[in-house]
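User: two proteins, same treatment. go.

Assistant:
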Amino acid sequence: MQLNVFSGNRGEIGEAHGRTHAALITHSLEVYDRLFRDFVGIGWDEARTAAERFLPMIERGFPAILDEMDGIARGAGLELGDIVTLNCRSEISLTQASGGCTAFSLNRDGRQWLAQNWDWRTDQLHNVVALELRPEDAPALVSVGEAGMVAKIGLNDRGIGVCLNAIRSRTCGEGLPIHVALRKILEAETFDRAVRVATQDRVCAPAHFLIAGGVGQATGFEVHPGLPGVLEPRGGTVTHTNHLYAETATCQVEDFPRPDSRPRLARIDRLLRDRLPLGEPIEAGALFEILADHEDAPLSICRHFNPDQSPEERMETLFAVVMDLTAGRLSLRHGKPCESDDVLEVHLPRDTRHSGEA
């Protein structure tokens, strides 16, 4: 996979993104048109109408990102409403559809790691892009996600990183859409500012954000329109799959996880304990091996085609990412981590001038 680097003001970055990935963005719209029909029973035009309710929330919480969305639309030859709908696809569809995803943070020997598999519909595999963005008014960042979307999983040059777990729930209220909130986190200059996106801006639909900083902080936030559930590290780790388990969240939100979510969480906890003993050095390759685990297949951490599931329910691992936030390094395997030997390595040197670390 190729890394695309875009810089300039918001509109310029968006237009370059849209122009470079126009074909992939158009294909993403087709994928989500099918998904909305499969899970929600609406077509693209109806989804665009549903997405309009999120515009005032974005205008209040992160207005600058609308300039970038408008640029993406302009570059791809689409309308702003199409790009807003694409970036609000979780809020429109996750009442019925949920992905997989297994994520963890690990603090060991002075290094802060973040890692996860992203599991989703196979028809989005070739719409995955890796972007390095250098806005004039925000930290440089790297995001791995879907073409046409403003962010998903990544890190910035202040040592802040974030991972995502989807949560299936019927809850949707006031706050930032999930992927817009992820981008705001990736523009945070400090860990505390990143945390404030989850705790003060709030997020209008449930998800889990695993936020970490290069100097050793990591906390999981089970976000939703209310006060998020908070998951502090235990033994230097935070782990999460696709169900809520912090009491602050579970007492406010009802979720509907797939049957494999709890077994995957137990499995990732065991693997981190058994395969990474204290005192031994850790490299990205060892974390990719954990993400390639197949116990309980086909409902394993590394997910493959499952013929026993209905076509619209099939989820497979589309990429695996390992981030060394202390070093400012992101490693990406596009496709299943057990099959892909081609690793994209991105190094984003830490800028400590504004982070309070200098």
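Protein 2:
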Amino acid sequence: MGRAQDLAAVSVGVAMVVLGLKVAAWWVTGSVALYADALESVVNVAAAIAALLAIRFAARPPDADHPYGHAKAEYVSAVLEGVLICVAALLILSEAWQTWQSPRLIEQPGLGVLVSAVATALNGSWSWVLFRRGRSLRSPALLADARHLLSDVVTSGGVLVGVLLVALTGLLWMDPLLAALTALNILVSGWRLIRESFGGLMDEAAPAEELGEIRALVAAHAEGAIEAHDLRTRRSGPTTFVEFHLVVPGSMTVTAAHDICDRIEMALKAHLDSAVITIHVEPDGKAKHRGVLVL
């Protein structure tokens, strides 16, 4: 988990640099659209700090009060980030409405766009790094941060184009309109992030594709058993929990049944990055004739 912590720490630094650049772009132009972009970067800094703290907490080993570990702290961080995104969107909408009623002239648009473009390029590059490393580390907090930054890049690109159009056409009403559209996009992004993160908090099952792979591995490595049924999975950060009932012949010795369980566990742990496996062995009289049939 140390690599995830290092990435989260760098994210805080990147977010602060981007915030400084975007505040500078808003300061020199007075554009409400660039203000909206800068306000989202405030959320980026808060979210990056929350992600770092969550990853550090999630890295703690299991203890008496948390025997399954602390990995779900990352989902809490992701939900918090989603809430912060939504709050930022509402603040932007409020500012856009005030500016709509009293339009303001944009000053030094060229300089403001240039500074904001540098910040957007930095965000885009770092979001790509977080996506790549977050997937390999299976870190919900890093992936949430990556999605947020990618959303920021998309909205920033639209804002930059809009500010240039305002400067070229003199249509001041376009500035608050762009800010409002940016806020709506941010609001949708925040809601999606909250919804996805709740899946982890509510013990959502492994994806269908991964579940199929688990079934195939159990079937291929349970030679000597009859079937496996009541297969259940759940995700907690980078860990996948797998549990099922394994039916064996009633005459099989405990040692032989244990050997089958060891084979299955080794196969699953070799396929999954991090897995906790629980197998309940039952005699043939408990067979349900459904679930995973042994090859």
